[in-house]
Amino acid sequence: MQNNKHEVSFLVGMPSRIEKVEKLLNIHYDGIRFIGIHGMGGLGKTTIAEVIYNKYQHHFECHSFLLDVRETESRNGIVHLQKQLLSAILKTRTIHVNDYKGGIRQIKGVVGRKKVLIVLDDVNDKSQIERIAGSWEWFGARSRIIITTRNKEVMRALESTTEEGHPKVYGNYQPDYLDHVESLELFCEHAFKRKSPPEGYDIISKNIVSTAAGLPLVLVVTGSSLSGETDEELWDERFKELKNIPAEEVQKKLRSSYDPLSAAQKEIFLDIACLFIGKDKTNPCYMWDGCGFYPRNVLNILVCKSLITIGDDNILGMHDQLRDLGRHIACEGKLDEWGSRLWDWDKAFKVYRTGEVKNTILF
């Protein structure tokens, strides 16, 4: 994700939630504020952070949006994230950091005199905050640090830590689920490209929306998967399928948009989920071409179904709930201990070192 304007995928029901975070942000307060946004995946935390970032970044000397901290650290390490932050603040791609302690020293030296806006998206461990934006003392006056996380304990750990009487996290917000009216509008925006159902689709639309438990991601993916479909039996089938899944099992609801995909579409979806998030689509397309998957058409279909995103810079993306779903599916019916695709570098190295590489495994 670039450090300038961020594309926001959906805003239905978001204004009131964004307003609550704006109050916590208190842009005119002279002090330094850490703001936490927490809740389950698919609830709209990143969307709220993106809107705030886009709206207020021009108020700051420097700004950086570090997307998907959890996944990026897992793949590339904490130093990579520190370098991303330094690159945004110093406005240069040439950044040298030997280890995370050196990264901390450089960040403190750079941001200490600046008014900065930093978003740390999808943090899952307190240490990530400590090594990227560790203390209010690091930053210049009026700086703001926004943290999104699924793990409320991360916020509690920070709230319990004070420095000179100042809590690290000055505000903590958990977005509400969408109500039925908001849910219906969001579903219709993606299913019909309008705010309400057309004639003949009112009842079935409301029935489907009632199964989504107010989760924006489920509504977007389900609506997109039905966009353009006129077969009434298919709509009824989708409703019955969703109705029989417990509301808390979000991944199973999202799976209903994966199952109807063609074999090639499934393979490319799983490849992206396991291996190519945050990567340029060019090289994977060569591979998929060689497999006879017609990737450009498939990628367009996956984008239309809201299963993946492709940035202006050709970077492949996917919501973390969909990523986790894909990785779970990739391990189903596996032929060995590791499954068909390896995305964890430690496991990949173990397979390579022990000579367990098989034709069914992709690195």
Strand arrangement across the biggest beta sheet: 2-3-4-1-7
Secondary structure category: alpha/beta
Rounded to an integer in angstroms, the radius of gyration calculated over CA atoms is 22 Å
Number of helices: 17
Note the run of SSEs as H and E.
HEHEHHHEHEHEEEHHHHHHHHEEHH
How many beta-strand elements? 9
**Content of β-strand:** 5-15%
Distance between the termini: 23 Å
In percent, how helical is the residue content?
40-55%
* Biggest sheet statistics: 5 strands, parallel
State the low-pLDDT regions, or none: 335-339
Mean pLDDT: 83
- Overall, the morphology is globular
Condensed summary:
The chain has 363 residues and is of the alpha/beta class.
Write the layout of secondary structure elements.
Elements: H1 15-25, E1 33-38, H2 45-56, E2 62-66, H3 69-76, H4 78-90, H5 100-111, E3 116-123, H6 126-133, E4 144-149, H7 152-159, E5 162-163, E6 166-167, E7 171-173, H8 180-191, H9 202-210, H10 216-226, H11 232-243, H12 250-258, H13 263-276, H14 282-290, H15 295-304, E8 309-310, E9 316-317, H16 320-330, H17 345-354
Parallel strand pairs: 1-4, 1-7, 2-3, 3-4
Antiparallel strand pairs: 5-6, 8-9
